[in-house]
Specification:
- The protein is an alpha/beta fold and 238 residues long.
- The chain has nine helices and eight strands.
- The strands form three sheets. The chain has a four-stranded mixed beta sheet. Strands 1-3 form a two-stranded antiparallel ribbon.
- Helix 2 packs across helix 5, helix 6 runs antiparallel to helix 7 and helix 6 runs parallel beside helix 9.
- The two termini are 30 Å apart.
């Protein structure tokens, strides 16, 4: 899917500031910021004053992980196999517009705000970036071997964990999913009645991420080690 929306340098920085101040305040009010995310965030020089450019992010992250960010001309939702093919090569495509203040709570098109705030800080952390690269390579392997059963499990991880997961830390449950760093859905995720302990059985549930609405159900997993081990096991089964 392509969009006609494009960067607008005259207004993007103001929109970025409004988004940053609102969402960061939301996350702090819930004590939801994960150690993984904040440790990556402080490495990147991102702040509330303006939209960072892809080449600036590339310069900042190269000290920490091999990822590069590829600025695209179009706003497009990649097919899973195309997305993971880039991620397997330590590349992440960046969309081409910043949502408006009217879309503060949610924007169902993937935008630059979500790309930067939701994904880039995590990818600045080596354990996360290695996990995500393994997920991509595992997805490609399952796709090539026509393992639809394993692709379903990997789609669950990509949607319900990478985008919408919660992680246990010493100071409590934190936001792990990238969506929570760019959307007010974080408020739904931090209602205790919406939180569910992750189990291996959930992988076979058939649940997937619906980008058009809040999910209302959020899985809590134990650690990065748990997630990486799970993906490695699926990789061996391909």
């Amino acid at each position: 899917m392509k969009s006609t929306r494009k960067f607008d340098p005259k207004v993007d920085d103001d929109n970025w500031s409004a988004l940053f101040n609102t969402h960061f305040q939301n996350l702090q009010s819930l004590n939801a910021v994960s150690t993984i995310w904040i440790n990556g965030f402080v490495k990147l020089g991102i702040d509330n004053s303006r939209r960072p450019k892809a080449d600036e992010l590339n310069l900042a992250i190269k000290k920490y992980t091999p990822y590069t960010f590829v600025q695209t001309d179009d706003n497009i939702i990649f097919e899973q196999i195309d997305w993971y093919t880039m991620i397997a090569d330590y590349k992440m495509p960046m969309t081409n517009f910043v949502r408006t203040p009217e879309e503060l709570s949610y924007c169902d098109e993937p935008d630059y705000w979500h790309d930067v705030m939701g994904h880039v800080p995590f990818l600045a952390q080596k354990d996360y970036s290695d996990m995500y690269n393994l997920l991509a390579k595992t997805y490609i392997k399952a796709y090539q071997n026509k393992r639809t059963d394993l692709l379903k499990q990997l789609d669950f991880i990509g949607g319900m964990i990478i985008e919408l997961g919660l992680i246990k830390e010493l100071s409590g449950i934190k936001a792990f999913g990238s969506t929570f760093y760019s959307s007010s859905e974080v408020f739904e995720a931090f209602k205790s009645e919406n939180q569910i302990a992750f189990t291996r059985e959930a992988l076979h549930s058939g649940e997937s991420y619906d980008r058009h609405s809040f999910q209302g159900k959020y899985y809590v997993f134990d650690s990065m080690e748990q997630l990486t081990t799970l993906i490695a096991e699926i990789n061996k089964a391909c």
